Amino acid sequence: MPGPLTNSKAINGIPRPIKSDLKSKRIIFEPEHVVRWSFLKVLREFSTLKEFYPEINPYTECYKVRDNTWALFNESFDGAGDVWMYLINGPKKALIVDTSFGVGDLKGLIRHLVGDKEVIVCNTHHHFDHCYGNAQFDTCYCHENEVFDIQSKNNPDIWDYLFNQTGETIVVGENEEVKPGEPVYTHFDKKDLIVDLDHKENYKPYNVVGVPDGYEFDLGDGYLVEAVLIPGHSAGQCAYYDKHNGTIFIGDCTGVGGRTAGPHQEFCTVEAMHDALIKLQPRLKDMTGVFPGHGMFDTHPIMLQYLLDTTEQVLKNPENYDKKTEMVRGDHTFVSYTKNIHQWTALRYSPTSVYKNQRK
Ligand SMILES: [Zn+2]
User: Fold this and answer.
1) I need a labelling partner for 89 at 20 to 30 A (CA). Which of 46, 61, 69, 335 fits?
2) Whole-model pTM?
3) Domains recognised in the chain with CATH numbers
4) Residue 329: is it exposed, middle or buried by C-beta count within 10 angstroms (0-12/13-18/19+)?
């Protein structure tokens, strides 16, 4: 397989930080994906779309992407990528897609943007950067395949990994000393976590409600947002399609097959993603913009066609990857392949997460 021509890791590691007034401050520098970097730099430093309300939520930047829709930006709190949430202000109700890490007052920010409306909280999937803010709400919706995984995050221990738990001062990033109990990846005030980690007994679990593919949320006056299952990254990874604006909020569609235990394994495959995209394909012409959980947003709907093309190529020959990565953990070696997506980033998968019958 052709590899990169240069030592791309060394070049990609050159800091090209983006200026920020956010209260979160990175300890470990995280190079943004090169394709996304320029977009985020120009957007965050110069765009007039930006709204920032530090007195309400100093961790979140808001960008108005449609008359009634905001993209809400959080820096990564754990080194796994900056993340987008999306807020739709419907006629009677509002709907938020994802809740990020749960640092800062998301509920208060939503109220500031849309008023006292009922807020429907939806998750694309169960990963930390997408659903840890759920604990601020009473009820959260997701695809029914995802209920098992979201429930596994419905407890006050999920944030522990963000802090130095070694009991000693450690050095991380560029020689930064981190005392016991302090955040290790990104600085933030522990008091700004939506859950009081010193009194975990006060944690109140929220209700997790699973909905089927095609379920419609009514935001009033016939304003519908549809749950569209696009699995692969997780068993119930779900997009939300605003039928009024033609905007689709897709979550994470670029990495396949996260878990090897639990129900609905066959959905954590390239084939499952492919089948969902085939079903969605006739509707791409009605869409006005694609909004992923990370990186560039409002991208052309044809990107979902390019993603579909990539899944087709992988299904034809999984060994025809662009890049192979091996990671050794203990006595097990994890193999992961990457196949480039035309004009986008890349689809990551493992040789055992291609076909549904590998996971039954
Ligand atoms: Zn993510």
Assistant:
1) 46
2) 0.94
3) 8-358 (3.60.15.10)
4) exposed
| Digit-coded pLDDT (tens) for 205-245 | 999 999 999 999 999 999 999 999 999 999 999 999 999 99
pLDDT tens digits, residue range 304-352?
999 999 999 999 999 999 999 998 888 888 899 999 999 888 999 999 9
Confidence category of residue 3, pLDDT binned at 50, 70, 90: very low
CA distances from 215 to 59, 125, 242, 344 (A): 32, 16, 12, 29
Distance 122 CA to ligand 1 centre (A): 14
- Ligand 1 center from residue 83 Cα (angstroms): 7
Ligand 1 centroid – CA 63 distance (Å): 19
What is the distance in A from the centroid of ligand 1 to the CA of 251?
7
Pairwise CA distance, residues 93 & 156, whole Å = 29
- The Å distance, Cα 93 to ligand 1 centre, comes to 26
Distance 129 CA to ligand 1 centre (A): 6
CA of 168 to the centre of ligand 1 (A): 30
pLDDT tops 50 at residue 5 = no
pLDDT attached to residue 82: 92
